[in-house]
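All the exercises in this workshop are built on plain-text protein records. A record pairs a protein's sequence with a compact description of its fold. Read left to right, the backbone structure tokens trace the chain's path through space. Once this layout is familiar, the rest of the handout is easier to follow. Here is such a record, shown just as it appears in the course material:
>
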Amino acid sequence: MPELPEVEVVRAGLAPAAIGSLITAVSVLDERALTRHAAGAEDFVVRLDGHRFAAADRRGKFLWLPLDSGGTALIAHLGMSGQMLLRAPDAPPERHERIRISLEHPTHGELAVVFADQRTFGSLAVDELRDDGPSRIPSQVLHIARDPMDPLVDDAAFLAALRRRSSGIKRVLLDQQVISGVGNIYADESLWAARIHPETAASALSTPAASRLLAEIRAVLAKALAEGGTSFDAQYVNVNGQAGYFAHSLNAYGRGGEPCPRCGGPIRRTAFMNRSSHYCPRCQRRR
């Protein structure tokens, strides 16, 4: 599933093309792409057509494009394989194309935003914006915590949340109500960098260890963002259809049985919540 770096790459790619653009047409080819828009395809089209995109925002794994009306936004969750692609207005349909939004930009002219999704777990919706402190965010995102790259995230509140939880630290990092945007890949990478075993109780972490972990989360996410995110196959690409290359920088995730880049011992892969955890038993000892 795309995590914070991948979604931020997509948001940043959409921004210059979408902001200020007039929506001239909306084509819903598959209503399965509107699972988050309960009112259905006709309402989705009516609420977008003729409006302009005013901004491009993100929190965690959600991105949204506020409309010029000021009260609503087009919100996207990419699910497992969703893609937001920029295409020429006369470009042929994409494989697995679900929705196409035709735009007219005051500088770039006509273009299209295509939502393609092979596994159909992603969704678009038009959602109401709500106040969340100094921010306005879609109602569907209100339950999501701020992410580690958000300048308004409260570090002290995050550390306090860890002290209140006895679950393993990796499980806590994946809880989007504690901190958002960190999924399986970046949890493994951050815990490896901080030398913390994924099953260590969050409440057992000392303040210096928890602070070190938060710093490593930010460092890992920043590096992944600089390298365009992590692509293992063609399911995650940026708006131009290009893959990210952070997969070449992974130290733990997906490297079960390979030598640890730090100590040379074998990386261990274990089952975890219908997924896998990857860590170094030598470097990340369970205290």
Summary: Residues 4-140 form a domain with the N-terminal domain of MutM-like DNA repair proteins fold (CATH 3.20.190.10). The mean pLDDT is 95. The helical segments are 4-18, 41-48, 155-163, 169-173, 184-194, 207-226. The two ends are 30 Å apart (CA to CA).
